[in-house]
Design brief:
There is one protein chain. The chain is of the alpha/beta class. The chain is built from twelve helices and 13 strands. The protein has helices spanning about 10-20, 35-40, 55-65, 75-90, 125-135, 160, 190-200, 220-230, 240-245, 250-255, 265-270, 280-285; strands at about 1-5, 25-30, 45-50, 65-70, 95-100, 110, 140-145, 150, 175, 185, 205-210, 235, 260. A seven-stranded parallel β-sheet has the order 3-2-1-4-5-7-11, with helices on both faces. Strand 2 (about 25-30), helix 2 (about 35-40) and strand 3 form a beta-alpha-beta unit. The relative contact order is 0.14.
Amino acid sequence: MNILLTGATGFIGSSVLTRLLDEGHSVTALVRDADKASAVEAVGASAVVGDASDADLVERTARVSDGVIHLASGKDVDAVLVPAVLAGLAGSGKPFVHTGGIWTYGSNDDITEESPVAPPAITAWRSAAEDLVRGAEGVRGTVVVPSIVYGHGKGLPNVVADAPRTEGAAPALRLIGDGSQHWATVHVDDLAALYVLALEHGTAGATYIGAGGQNPTVRELGEAAAQAAGLTGGAVAEPVDETRSRLGEGLAEALLLDQQARGSKARIDLGWEPNGATLLEELLVGSYAPARV
């Protein structure tokens, strides 16, 4: 298939682009400038230079595609792009894979696609676009919900790996709050495989949680990062008000959520098999360790 892809040069998008090409699909990437166009063309994709909030461009480009994966998600972008994609694909039965986020479900020790939603303020905007995609008629709309994405030294785990250190004879890494909260996690390359499976085989109106099944506490992550950095004081709790001041109210609220998920539906329905190294391994000896390049 010829797939229209947004966010192709981003952390998740670059892995999805590679996976699509490896699976034999062709890709047209909607990118913002000539440098990004050159980047996607260098790996074998075609590029359309333009703005994701240009409704006419998005609708035209979607119409001539065989399906769309949208990764450049944002409040202002989604308000324009999602209706434009649905207009371009209307009545075709073609797939449209949209991006959600695990924080939507709030604190929950066993998140599934049917769990009640309780989004923090930073992601409360997501529901409108997700509902449009799932409810679209004549389009095979699905929503992939990434948990906290890691791999290749990128993404949110750097908030842990590069956290401030305490001073003194036994320096320690400062946690996000007391570190007792769990994070649902997924390796970026495993997540890319899920996007392609949802594109190829997803059921119209379905949601698929991208969670690899490893749900470490932030304290466990911090201790791994501290060990990798040779910090003899290990990891120490940070008062919540200091975390909010350091990270900002919105991000802190999200990262303090206590979340666990298994991603069972994607395994059962789509045959998804996440097998990347765990985030703990990546922090201790992998791409987030101090020797990373």
